[in-house]
Amino acid sequence: MPIYEYKCGKCGSEFEQFRRIGDDDDDLKCPKCGTEKPERKLSATSPGGGSACGCGCGGGTKPSPPKMKIG
Q: Whole-model pTM above 0.85?
């Protein structure tokens, strides 16, 4: 389930919310002031499924390759 970023038009508060892709935002309220229908912000996404390592775990770094012993 993606995380969307929102900004309240009244108080300027910014917050994140887990939402299904098909969900509309009619039921959202600003957690700070309670204003309905905050604005969904445009977010940058990571290429390759949302995580830097590509495994979908949400980690931010690519795992190091295993070290090989010679001899």
A: no
